[in-house]
Amino acid sequence: MRLKNNLDRSQGGFTLVELLVGLSLGLIVIGAVLALVVSMMRTSAQSVSAIRLTQEARTLADLVSREIRRARFDGDYVEYLGRGKASTGKFSGMSVAPTCVKFGYDENGDGAIGAGEFKSIWYDTASKYLMLNTFATFAGTTCSGGSRIGSNDIQVEALVFSAQPTPTAFNQFVLMDFVVAKKNDVNVKRNFKQVISLRNFDS
User: Fold this and answer.
1) Pick from 14, 38, 163, 167: most CB atoms within 10 A?
2) Within 10 Å of residue 137's Cβ, how many Cβ atoms?
């Protein structure tokens, strides 16, 4: 009889309390693993978002730099060989304000700046976009209208243009200091500074 009781105890399995404790511990472990996976996925998504924002901001800076760098370009440059500083006299029109740059260049290479070759790049604080517009004359160039520069996925939170001191009479720079953010998540931001070296100095 005693042997039978010992066998019954050894084959009795887990009690309800033991099962509940084991189940609770299992749920805690599973919850911790899930929290870790979710955290890793969120971090990965934020990293991808930050990388894309950086790429978009660099593209925007490159587009603006490409335009401003060409300011005062004269397609008929052979005419000025050997004249020194006087070579840029008729293309000296340029204005740099904190949120707008006005300039012109000989886009079609005919030796003159004509209609559509005077431009402004300006910051629209309402839409938070950079805008590019073209005009017929430098005097008529304004910081308004035009088309958006850059991607729809980003917005410009702040921007300042500034003309930098020139080391010599043959150099001039425009500093573009701006902050961009993801349009659908303004908490993801990046600050960039782009120094734009003008190819055609003003005498």
Assistant:
1) 163
2) 13
